[in-house]
């Protein structure tokens, strides 16, 4: 399910009152048809709601995503379990965080790598690498014109 340009999920409508992304039971036991990868390689923020990804027998790399780096609300529910078991590892350049096995499939971290001075998003680990307060989904520099998306 490639959505290579999806950067922000705003979560204005959520499933079951709490999930902005919900993926479940995407396989057919009697055939080879199944969801194998999401490849949301540009997804860096879910503004409202959590994540539920369960019982997708062939879906790989869901446990290699740092969903806390993507979900804005620290109290949002994140359920990721019982998905693909025979999955290839992340490419070594991804340091264990990826949407797929290739070097182009690395997850872009925009929150968990930030210095404490940054207000939620950054483009690097140093205190002078904070995103502007109006940015959603991260940034490429400190100016409001460097935002990947606006709040």
TrEMBL record:
Sorted UniProt keywords: ATP-binding, Glycoprotein, Kinase, Membrane, Nucleotide-binding, Phosphoprotein, Receptor, Transferase, Transmembrane, Transmembrane helix, Tyrosine-protein kinase
Membrane topology, from the record: Single-pass type I membrane protein
Intracellular or extracellular location(s): Membrane
GO molecular function: ATP binding; transmembrane receptor protein tyrosine kinase activity
Domain of life from the UniProt record: Eukaryota
Domain Receptor L-domain: 2-70
Pfam families according to UniProt: Furin-like (PF00757), Recep_L_domain (PF01030)
EC number: 2.7.10.1
InterPro entries linked to this entry: Furin-like_Cys-rich_dom, Growth_fac_rcpt_cys_sf, Rcpt_L-dom, Rcpt_L-dom_sf
Enzyme class: transferase
Catalytic activity from the UniProt record: L-tyrosyl-[protein] + ATP = O-phospho-L-tyrosyl-[protein] + ADP + H(+)
A cellular component annotation (GO) from this entry: membrane
Domain spans labelled Furin-like cysteine-rich: 86-151
Main location: membrane
Protein name: receptor protein-tyrosine kinase
Species, as recorded: Oryctolagus cuniculus
